[in-house]
Specification:
By secondary structure, the protein is α+β, with helices and mostly antiparallel strands. It has 2 domains: 158 residues, no CATH class; 101 residues, no CATH class. It is built from 9 helices and 13 strands. It has a 5-stranded mixed beta sheet. The longest helix is centred in the N-terminal third of the chain and has 24 residues. The two termini are 23 Å apart.
């Protein structure tokens, strides 16, 4: 099973061992000003608004097609039946996939209706645009403000990680089996990540077609919403980071005074000790006692004599 690693101070490591829980933080408190910032593309916003308008126009158009009180000729009736069949078929596929696909010709109709409405001084579409911008986008930003993240690495022997997060090599690195859910690899890029609002909008409308609440476990939605949280500058590539992204209502999340905690769904499998840890301290002795009681191997890291690297000393607690 793949392993992930949590760098921390000796004091914090003891708390993790006692509870099998890790601390969570909001990205606004991180040391990277670009971390998890949600940027929107203006063209993407316009496309998303157009999709919402199209969605409601199609609903109204279907009501018109299904209105038996409207008297029309044979040819028009035939065209209406064909339109109704095509639209219903498309919507059926959208319901099944939980993803709203534009209906052929609907985008052109939407543009025409919006342009005509603007010429006539109709304000409803501007109001819809304002509502979409203020409410939908704000909800996305609220998701960032409420996000709770715990950061891990794929490495236990990174000199920089020990320096930055392992109390300058005086701390501990805790090894866990990597859980299957909610843990995502961070990607590194030169370009800042833009939130995919169009894709998110189509997925939400797909659920609306079925009169369902959007499923928080929907992998497509998770991919859209989590993207800004897992793309960082290339400068951070050395971290080889894995992130656990949660919310205050997620399973396993609890509150201890001002601190948010997450009870890990997997066990601690190993503990690595920094090369500068104070082995005479009471905290270190307590750490060893806890590890022994839980049958967790404790491995010391030492400085290599030949390379700029850290080496494992011994094979485990009982060696």
């Amino acid at each position: 099973m793949e392993k992930i690693y949590k760098y921390t101070s000796l004091k914090s490591a003891i708390k993790v061992l006692e509870s099998n829980a890790v601390a969570l933080n909001n990205p606004q408190n991180y040391n990277d000003p670009f971390d998890s910032v949600i940027d929107f593309d203006d063209d993407d916003i316009e496309k998303s608004i157009s999709i919402v308008v199209e969605y409601y126009l199609i609903q109204e158009f279907l009501k018109l097609l299904n209105n038996k009180n409207i008297k029309v000729g044979f040819l028009t009736k035939l065209i209406m039946k064909w339109d109704r069949f095509g639209i219903n078929l498309n919507l059926k596929v959208s319901k099944k996939n939980k993803y709203y696909d534009s209906i052929p010709g609907a985008q052109a109709l939407t543009k025409f209706v919006v342009r005509y409405a603007v010429q006539k001084g109709e304000k409803s579409f501007e109001e819809l645009k304002k509502k979409f911008t203020n409410e939908i986008i704000q909800k996305v930003k609220d998701a960032r403000n409420n996000a709770l993240i715990s950061c891990f690495s794929k490495r236990y022997d990174s000199i920089l990680m020990w320096s930055h997060y392992g109390d300058k090599h005086k701390g501990i690195c805790i090894e866990f089996d990597r859980p299957e859910k909610d843990f995502l690899d961070v990607k590194y890029s030169k370009k800042r990540c833009k939130f995919d609002l169009e894709d998110t909008t189509r997925r939400v409308l797909g659920y609306m077609l079925s009169n369902e609440e959007a499923d928080v476990n929907d992998k497509g939605l998770i991919r859209c919403i989590s993207q800004p949280f897992i793309v960082k500058s290339l400068d951070w590539q050395y971290e080889e980071e894995v992130r656990c992204i949660l919310s205050p209502s997620s399973d396993g999340v609890s509150k201890l005074e001002e601190l948010s905690l997450y009870t890990m769904p997997t066990k601690i499998t190993k503990i690595y000790v920094g090369c500068k840890v104070d082995k005479n301290s009471e905290e270190y002795k307590k750490l060893l006692q806890l590890a022994e009681a839980k049958e967790i191997d404790v491995i010391e890291l030492i400085e290599s004599e030949d390379l700029f690297s850290l080496e494992a000393k011994g094979g485990g607690f009982n060696d």
